[in-house]
């Protein structure tokens, strides 16, 4: 039975409860529905990100790569500067598990060295009668953990009196795998520090230009146009050449990081400016201004979170770009310098085409560069989709 309609001109009755709202007393929702409705924004982003399986596993891979930089000395089978003059330009040794039909465990065969008189190249041949088991959690080359504590414990080591060169050696008899593990610490962290500098400049300068406009916006745009018109490689080379040779390796490391961040902020600044030009006209910005909020608070708390997905995508693209920039500068001899070891410095061994033809394993440092860049791209796609409220 329906209730009669009110008389013309009479006030309409409402059915809105005046009792305090308690979201935990909702009974019409199922447990799954209430879980979604009561979840925070970060939890919703995390659920959406986990559904992107490729990005999720790429994130795990990147987390493991960065975690490995904390224990490089322990993970590497040899010290960074250990030389084996009897094993110069040794090809990679294969890991075996069975010997003559019997399970032995991980081991490598011994090697004999000879000299090819036609090519004057060292030739290494396996000796199946000599077995060197791989040791785990063992004592090996001494090192200073993080440059502070003396230690000699490694995750895996060669057998006593044997060798374990899983990725071969270079022209000085140094283990390529150990140097790649040590080089990850520099090549991976230089992207994080560089993106911090780049984001600080891009968000501050682009935010002020987009929010205030006027002469400051015009000046910023002209500076950006000048910087973007200069080819990146010659500009990197010019700035890197300014650094004195007498500087310590750690100062050069931070100098290269600052150069990479200083030249990468222009694209982000323009993106932030264009977003703020449109968002500053929204009603919630006007409300914040009328309430007396400062410009820094309006930009940081109200405007920038509105396009956080774009910032995330930019960061995940910029980090591998900086890794490639450091690799290119070091490969050209204008970036980091020994004794600092990075993937770019390791690739300088492969400058000569004849060296690559004779010793192709010297190109192995290129593999982690490619894997990290691909992982960052997929990881950035997943984060951008998860942070996009309209996706």
Class from secondary-structure proportions: alpha+beta
Helical residues, percent = 40-55%
Per DSSP E runs of 2 or more residues, the count of β-strands stands at 5
In the CATH hierarchy, what is the superfamily of the largest domain? Answer: MetI-like
The multimeric state of the shown protein is single chain
Strand content: 5-15%
Order of helices and strands: HHHHEEEEEHHHHHHHHHHH
CATH architecture of the largest domain: Orthogonal Bundle
Instruction: State the CATH class of the largest domain.
Output: Mainly Alpha
Strand order of the largest sheet: 1-2-3
Unreliable segments (pLDDT under 50, ≥5 consecutive)? none
How many structural domains does the protein architecture include?
A: 2
Round the mean pLDDT to the nearest integer and report it.
82
Continuous helix count: 15
**What's the N-to-C terminus distance?**
44 Å
Short note summarizing the structure:
With 391 residues, the protein is of the alpha+beta class. 53% of the residues lie in helices and 13% in strands. The chain is built from 15 helices and five strands.
Description:
By secondary structure, the protein is of the alpha+beta class. The protein has 2 domains: 93-164, no CATH class; 178-387, MetI-like (MetI-like fold). Helix content is 53%, strand content 13%. It has 15 helices and 5 strands. Helix 5 packs antiparallel against helix 6. The longest helix has 37 residues, at 176-212. The two termini are 44 Å apart. The model has no long low-confidence stretch (mean pLDDT 82).
């Amino acid at each position: 039975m329906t209730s009669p309609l009110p008389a013309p001109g009479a006030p309409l009755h409402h059915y809105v409860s005046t009792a305090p709202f308690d979201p935990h007393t909702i009974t019409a929702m199922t447990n799954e529905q209430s879980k979604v409705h009561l979840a925070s924004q970060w939890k919703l982003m995390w659920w959406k990100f986990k559904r992107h399986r490729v990005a999720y596993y790429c994130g795990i891979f990147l987390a493991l790569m960065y975690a490995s930089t904390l224990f490089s000395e322990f993970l590497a089978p040899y010290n960074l500067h250990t030389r084996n003059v009897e094993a110069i330009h040794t090809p990679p040794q294969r890991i075996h598990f069975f010997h003559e039909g019997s399970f032995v465990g991980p081991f490598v065969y011994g090697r004999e060295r000879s000299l090819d008189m036609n090519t004057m190249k060292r030739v290494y041949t396996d000796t199946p009668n000599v077995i060197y088991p791989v040791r785990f959690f063992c004592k090996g080359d001494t090192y200073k953990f993080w440059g502070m504590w003396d230690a000699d414990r490694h995750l895996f080591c060669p057998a006593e009196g044997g060798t374990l060169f899983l990725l071969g050696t270079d022209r000085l008899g140094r283990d390529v795998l150990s140097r790649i593990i040590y080089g990850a610490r520099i090549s991976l962290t230089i992207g994080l520090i560089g993106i911090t500098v780049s984001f600080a400049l891009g968000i501050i300068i682009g935010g002020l230009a987009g929010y205030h406009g006027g002469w400051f916006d015009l000046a910023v745009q002209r500076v950006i146009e000048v910087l973007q018109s200069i080819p990146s490689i010659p500009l990197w080379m010019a700035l890197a050449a300014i650094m004195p040779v007498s500087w310590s390796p750690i100062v050069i490391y931070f100098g290269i990081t600052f150069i990479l961040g200083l030249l990468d902020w222009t694209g982000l600044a323009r993106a932030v400016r264009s977003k703020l030009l449109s968002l500053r006209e929204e009603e919630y910005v006007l409300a914040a201004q009328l309430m007396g909020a400062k410009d820094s608070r309006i930009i940081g708390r109200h405007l920038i979170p509105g396009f956080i997905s774009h910032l995330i995508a930019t960061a995940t693209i910029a980090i591998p770009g900086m890794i490639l920039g450091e690799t290119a500068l070091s490969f050209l001899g204008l970036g980091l310098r020994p004794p600092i070891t990075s993937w770019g410095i390791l690739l300088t061994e492969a400058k000569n085409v004849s060296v690559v033809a004779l010793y192709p394993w010297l190109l192995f440092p290129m593999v982690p560069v490619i894997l990290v860049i691909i992982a960052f791209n997929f990881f950035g796609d997943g984060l951008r989709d998860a942070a996009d409220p309209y996706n």
